[in-house]
Design brief:
The structure is a single chain. The chain contains 5 helices and 9 strands; from the N terminus they run αβαββαββαββββα. By secondary structure, it is an alpha+beta fold. The strands form 2 sheets. The protein has a 5-stranded antiparallel β-sheet with strand order 2-6-5-4-7, with helices on one face. The chain has a 4-stranded antiparallel β-sheet with strand order 3-1-8-9, with helices on one face. The longest helix has 17 residues. About 20% of the residues are buried. Hydrolyzes RNA 2',3'-cyclic phosphodiester to an RNA 2'-phosphomonoester. Its EC number is 3.1.4.58. It comes from Kangiella taiwanensis. It is an enzyme of class 3 (hydrolase).
C-alpha cells in the first residue's frame, strides 16, 4: 500500500531520480563493502539512486499535479558510466560520480524543471552545480585511495518521482511514478528501429 495513503503527515518528501537496476545496486554494494575508500554510515543498497531534482516537502494533495505536469522528454536512452569515487566534505558524503552521460542527465533535469514551471509548480533552486552521483556513505571520511578508477555502467531508459519514507527500519525510498525518457515514433515502433 502506498506510503501516501498511510502517512499521518500531510506532506511527502519528494525528489526526481534515476532508479538503478538491481544488478548495478548489487555491484555498488560489493564496492561499498569490499573497498575501504570511505568510513561512515553506509547507505542501504535498496536506497541507491541518482537524484535529478530534489523537491522537498510537498503537500499530498499536490502530488497528482506533479504526475500530470511531466511530459516524456525527447532524449533517446543513453549510457551512464561510473568512473570514479568522490567525496563532498561540506555534506560528508562518500559517493561515486557519473562522467559519461552527465550531459544527458542535465538535459533531463532541465526538462523536469521546465515541465514543473509550465504547470505553475515552483520549487527552490539548487544551490550547487549539478554533480550527478550515487551516495554510498553519509557522515563519512575518505580513508583509502579515492583516485582509483571504476568501471561501472548502466543504461537510462526511465526516470521517476520518489518519496523518502521514514519507518521503523529507517529511511526507505519509494518510487511513486515513472516516465520513459523517450517515446518512439510509430515508424520506429513499426520497423523496430532503435537509436
Amino acid at each position: 500500500m502506498s506510503s501516501i495513503a498511510n502517512s499521518v503527515k500531510n506532506k511527502a518528501r519528494l525528489f526526481f531520480a534515476i532508479e538503478l537496476s538491481q544488478d548495478l545496486k548489487n555491484k555498488l554494494e560489493i564496492l561499498q563493502k569490499s573497498s575501504p575508500v570511505f568510513a561512515g554510515r553506509p547507505v542501504k543498497p535498496h536506497n541507491f539512486h541518482l537524484t535529478l531534482q530534489f523537491l522537498g516537502a510537498v503537500p499530498h494533495q499536490d502530488i497528482h499535479d506533479l504526475f500530470d505536469s511531466i511530459d516524456t522528454p525527447n532524449i533517446k536512452p543513453f549510457e551512464l558510466s561510473i568512473d570514479r569515487y568522490a567525496y563532498y566534505p561540506n555534506t560528508e558524503i562518500g559517493c561515486v560520480e557519473i562522467l559519461e552521460g552527465k550531459q544527458h542527465l542535465k538535459q533531463l533535469k532541465t526538462h523536469i524543471n521546465q515541465c514543473l514551471a509550465s504547470a505553475g509548480l515552483h520549487f527552490s533552486k539548487d544551490k550547487h552545480e549539478f554533480r550527478p552521483h550515487i551516495t554510498l556513505f553519509r557522515e563519512s571520511q575518505p580513508i583509502g585511495d579515492i583516485l582509483q578508477p571504476l568501471d561501472l555502467s548502466c543504461k537510462v531508459e526511465r526516470f521517476c518521482l520518489m518519496e523518502s519514507v521514514q519507518n521503523e527500519k529507517g529511511v526507505y525510498y519509494e518510487v511513486l511514478e515513472e516516465w520513459p525518457v523517450y517515446e518512439p515514433s510509430i515508424k520506429e515502433q513499426f520497423f523496430g528501429i532503435k537509436d
